Amino acid sequence: MSYNLSINILAMIQFKTNKKAFILIVFTALCIGMSNILGTQQAEAATIPVVSGSDAISADGQCRLSEAIENINDQAQSNSDCSAGDGANDTIILPSGTVTLSNDLPELTEPLIVEGAGKTTTTIDADGNLGFNADFSSSDTGLYDYRFSNFTITGADFAGFIFTQPSSINLSNVLVEDSVSGAILSGITVTVTNSDFQNNTSSYDLSSVSPYHPSSFAGVSVITFPIATTDIPTLTMSNVTSSNNSAHKTGVDIINLTSVGGDDVSKVVNTISNTSVLDNSATGNAILSVFQDGGPSATVPMELDVDSVTIAGNSVTATSSNPVVGGYFNSQPYTTGMSVNGKLADVQNLKNVTVANNTATNLFDDQPTMSGFQGVLNSEGSDMTIYNATIVNNLVTQTDESIYETGITTGNNVAFYVLKINISDFTTSIASTSINSISAGNKRNGIIGTCGMIDSAVFGIPSALTDLTPTNQGSNISDDSHCTGYQLKPNVLSTLDTLKDNGGFVPTIALLPGSPAIGAGGQVLGISTDARGVPRPSNPDVGAYQTVLGDSIETSSNDSDSALADTGQDISIVIAIVLSILTICIGIAGYRRRLLN
After folding, report:
1. Quick one: which of 51, 220, 283, 595 has the fewest CB in 10 Å?
2. Distances from the Cα of 556 to the Cαs of 458, 545, 553, 562, in angstroms?
3. What does residue 323 show for φ and ψ, rounded to 5 degrees?
4. CA–CA gap between residue 17 and residue 467 (Å, rounded)
């Protein structure tokens, strides 16, 4: 892909004719190729357009996708129908329409950029074949940069994308649907933006290609890893949806590796915003999971910044008994919702998160079975601070008492907790604080339960009680009296609307008129918007949703006020914008009159 630098030049030319002056405003776009600025490496890169239709390789004068990949891999004109690859950032241009694969796409062995005409315009129909793939050994130099944008891949077998060792992966405006697994992305840095992973399903055991996926997976999985101790494994995920996927594990799965030859990197970084994990089903985990290698024994600090994320409607149903071998820490819990495991750095934040309507059903054994928000952290790391979360209506059904639940001495269920474990002696402590959050309607076997106390004897160590309630830092509301320090509002769930599109990127749960959460929060430095991007006032609401003037919760209403409310905008903001535009227009008109006179 050639990069262009666009420079907008405003030219004002004044002409005087008789008694009048005319002003001509000319906007021109002067495009200078970035290749002329960045030097010979960009200038040498090839741009190879391919045709739609069958991808079968044949000498027919038409450049096909697989032919272009082979030429870039070979850095030669191996297929006469396409130009040779000849640079570090060779680009394949996909056309509008559909490219139908006849075989698996060739394994990528050189850096590559693939650009389509748009997610709804360009489609790769894998037709039961493997999509984009690369599998390098740890001895590779790591100089692999892959960027994919503006197309859909559908019907892929094994995966639409699977990369096990490249240095950099970037997916932008990509849809992976109706495929096996979806996307499995590994690299030092992985960036996924404006992309969707939906209706993918898998029964494949992925352990042969990824030891971190011992069973089937569907959705989007990211593994960040270093190839040198100076690397900082980094994930950036924004405006992403993983929905309606089905496998043993589904949703968004993030794994951070930290070691190179026995030496650790300085830190890992995960930034996740405007991301939804919706209506996935699994036999093990349907979840947004952030997991450092080693879990609570991880020693490398993890910077975690999570903002405006919704995990809702996901379900786990155990299909057979999976007994525990070797104690609690070797168990394979059934989990739905959100989970964080590792060692938190001082720089971390979690805000405007909705975890709602998730279910976990286990009718077979006493494995830990959980639904809601869970975290298990290294005791040497920082605590987690949770701002404006909505943790509601997460349900567990289990016939046998879970080995985890046997340790709950107070309360019926724990749906909202972050626990620290000291690996040296396995003592436990609470590891989170909560501000302006709602936790309600969470149940185990039909009985309300969000908070509780655990006896560490369940871990096989001397008995000690730990209150798992995120420490109250103000303005938290719950319907469970076991949530220490929270405002007890037994009927708060009835004052919440259903989860739906209320504007913004992620679905949210609005507050009904009269809800005790309206205006009941405290102002927090740095928390300026809700999950939709709506500004929060000095007396904000509790939870991920902020009520604004003009909000309407009537789903059947089609009047102009409710339409405005759906945008998530305060009417005063709209008025201010209109007045600002009018002021600018009046100023321009006055300036024009002075010039003409």
Report:
1. 595
2. 50, 20, 9, 9
3. -65, 150
4. 84
Biggest alpha carbon distance in the chain? 99
- The whole-chain average pLDDT of the chain stands at 83
| pLDDT given for residue 324 in this prediction | 56
Cβ-contact 386, 348 below 8 angstroms: no
* ∠ Cα 488 482 382 (to 5°): 105
Question: What CA–CA distance (Å, rounded) separates 244 from 281?
Answer: 7
Whole-number Å distance between alpha carbons of 167 and 140: 10
- 341: buried, middle or exposed (CB in 10 Å: 19+, 13-18, 0-12)? buried
pLDDT of residue 587: 42
For tokens 């054994």, what's the residue? 365
Angstrom distance (rounded) from CA 243 to CA 177: 10
Residue 215 near residue 194 (C-beta atoms within 8 A): no
CB 380 within 8 A of CB 423: no
Q: Please tell me the distance from the alpha carbon of residue 49 to that of residue 1, in angstroms, as a whole number.
A: 10
Q: Contact at 8 Å (CB) between 487 and 474? A: no
Query: How many CB atoms neighbour CB 523 within 10 A?
Result: 13
Q: Phi and psi (nearest 5°) for 424?
A: -70, -35
E-only strand ranges, 78-144 = 91-93, 97-100, 112-115, 122-125, 132-134
CA gyration radius for the chain? 27
Pair of tokens at residue 466: 């730990």
Distance in angstroms (rounded) separating the CA atoms of residues 435 and 433 = 7
pLDDT over 50 (residue 97): yes
Instruction: List C-alpha distances in Å: 6 to 3, 173, 584.
Output: 10, 22, 26
Closest CA to 167 of 230, 210, 209: 230
Q: Which 8-state DSSP code applies to residue 401? A: P
Question: What's the CA angle centered on 165, arms 163 and 166, to 5 degrees?
Answer: 80
pLDDT digits (tens, 9 = 90+) for 362-380: 998 888 899 999 999 999 9
Could you tell me the CA-to-CA distances from 32 to 1, 321, 545 in Å, in that order?
14, 64, 45
Residue 517 near residue 511, CB atoms below 8 Å = yes
Contact 282, 327 (CB under 8 A): no
Distance of alpha carbon 108 from alpha carbon 394, whole angstroms: 43
Task: Give me the residue label for tokens 């525990």.
Answer: 324
